[in-house]
Each structure stands twice: as structure tokens, then as C-alpha cells.
Write a structure and sequence with these properties.
Blueprint: H1 3-35, E1 36-41, E2 50-52, E3 55-57, H2 59-70, E4 74-79, H3 85-90, E5 96-97, H4 105-108, E6 112-126, E7 143-147, H5 151-165, E8 172-176, H6 179-187, E9 193-197, H7 198-207, E10 211-227, H8 232-247, H9 250-257
Parallel strand pairs: 1-4, 1-5, 7-8, 7-9
Antiparallel strand pairs: 2-3, 6-9, 6-10
């Protein structure tokens, strides 16, 4: 084979390789466009998200699945620790976050939200309330478990500072990487109370009669699907889907299924 033939053959091979590379580069967005909407979710927060066997289940899972369907896509879930869930979204490891995430001014500095429910927080104690906990003030000097990275923890920390400012003992806040671990700490007597979203507390109590409520729900906050600020078209689509789910009754049916009807947004 002559040098010139080898050269022409090399150019042809290089051109084919370039086509393969370009084809591979475009394959990922093509697959994405074909129909997957990936949600980051900390799947340790029943009844909003948890594993039923090996399959994600819960109100947020049902809501996200329906939102994706209305956008012509299939929902996929990436189990992500809550304390790193916004970072995962910003790093494009998922398209959106649905994880019982409160829509707060601090979080809106990083992401944008489409709100879909409004949830208060509750205290959970051992059945019979042996520590006589009935309010936030009664948490003075008590040990309370909560999931790390949540607004629930921020709220407890702020309450503890307020108590100290009034000359009372601080709350001993113990944060756990998984919400189920925080609830288990109450079960095993490592803490005096657990603090979390009211539907989650209600779920734990329904599953374990050794738990009970302490006082009334407090501090209701909107909960939203978080998206990157640059994804304006996706946000508009998600917002339309949520509005239509409320309009045709789908949202209320999902919430009723998980005994969360009280969290529905008011008209």
C-alpha cells in the first residue's frame, strides 16, 4: 500500500471516528428528550417518599410520576441525601427535586420552585407523653431528633436560641442523615421527641402505636418541586401540570390516598 493510499485511508477512518463521536455526544440528549424526567428525592421520608420493597412509593412519587406523564415523559427517581440534594440538582444529576422540600427565601437564592402542597410541622413523642411535651417552649432542656439539612432543623435551632435568650435551657438538637433514623432514635429512647412534617409524624404514628402527637401542628410552609432557575420552560410545564392536577381532582385524589388531604393548597 502506497503512502498516499495509506494517507487517504487514514483520513477516511478519522472522518468515520468523528461521526461516531458526534453521534455519541448527541445520543444522551436524544434519550433525555425521548422521555425521562429525573427527580432527585431523599427516599426516607414516609409517606411522601419511601421504598416499598425496592420500588419508590409515596405521595411525592405519585405526584412526580403524574407530572412527568403530563409532560409526555416517564419519571425516574435518584435517591439523594437531603443535605446534598440542591447541589445534585445544580450539578445536573437530575432535572428536578421532589422531596418534601419547603419553599423558603434562602433556598430560592439557589433554585426556583413550583409549590404543590402546604405542610405544618409536628412533635412526636412516646405514647402517653412521659416527658410532658406540649409545645415548643416545653422542649427547653430536652433532646429532639430531626433530619439533617431540613427547615425543621433550622426551625428547632432558631427556637433553641430564642429559649436561651429568655434565660431557659437550650434544646439539644440531634440531626440524623435519614428521617427514619431520627424517628428510630425516639423509639429507642435516645431522644425525648422527634420533629418533622405533620404528614410524616401522622404516618409514623399510624404504623407504630408506641408513638403519639405532642401539641398541635405549627409553622405551615409551602412545599415545592425545585428546579434550576435556567430551566424556565420546564418550570412552566411543571406549573401547568400542577394546576391541571388540582383542577381535575388528581392532586386531591393522590393526597387522599396518602391521608394528606389537609396539605392541599387552598384556592
Amino acid at each position: 500500500m502506497t503512502q498516499s493510499v495509506r494517507g487517504m485511508l487514514g483520513i477516511a477512518i478519522a472522518a468515520i471516528a468523528a461521526l461516531v463521536v458526534v453521534g455519541s455526544a448527541t445520543a444522551v440528549p436524544a434519550r433525555h428528550a425521548a422521555g425521562t424526567l429525573t427527580f432527585c428525592s431523599d427516599i426516607t421520608y414516609p409517606p411522601e417518599e419511601f421504598y416499598s420493597g425496592t420500588k419508590p412509593a409515596g405521595s411525592d412519587i405519585d405526584i412526580a410520576t403524574e407530572v412527568a406523564r403530563r409532560l409526555g415523559k416517564t419519571a425516574k427517581f435518584s435517591n439523594t441525601g437531603f443535605d446534598g440534594i440542591i447541589a445534585a440538582l445544580l450539578a445536573k444529576k437530575c432535572d428536578a427535586v421532589i422531596s418534601g422540600m419547603n419553599d423558603t427565601p434562602e433556598r430560592r437564592k439557589q433554585v426556583t420552585f413550583v409549590d404543590y402542597i402546604r405542610v405544618g410541622q409536628s412533635l412526636m413523642v412516646k405514647s402517653g407523653n412521659p416527658k410532658h411535651i406540649s409545645s415548643l417552649a416545653s422542649l427547653s432542656g430536652k433532646t429532639v431528633s430531626v433530619e439533617v439539612g431540613t427547615t425543621n432543623k433550622d426551625f428547632l435551632d432558631a427556637t433553641s436560641k430564642t429559649l436561651k435568650a429568655h434565660g431557659k435551657a437550650a434544646i439539644k438538637v440531634q440531626a440524623f442523615p435519614k428521617d427514619t433514623d431520627a424517628a428510630a432514635a425516639l423509639k429507642t429512647g435516645r431522644v425525648d421527641a422527634y420533629f418533622g412534617d405533620s404528614p410524616v409524624v401522622a404516618y409514623y404514628i399510624s404504623k407504630d402505636k408506641s408513638f403519639g402527637f405532642a401539641g398541635a401542628p405549627i409553622n405551615p410552609i409551602p412545599v415545592g418541586i425545585a428546579l434550576r432557575k435556567s430551566d424556565t420552560a420546564l418550570k412552566a410545564g411543571v406549573r401547568r401540570a400542577i394546576l391541571r392536577m388540582y383542577a381535575d381532582g388528581t392532586m386531591r385524589r393522590i393526597l387522599a390516598k396518602w391521608k394528606m388531604s389537609a396539605t392541599a393548597l387552598k384556592k
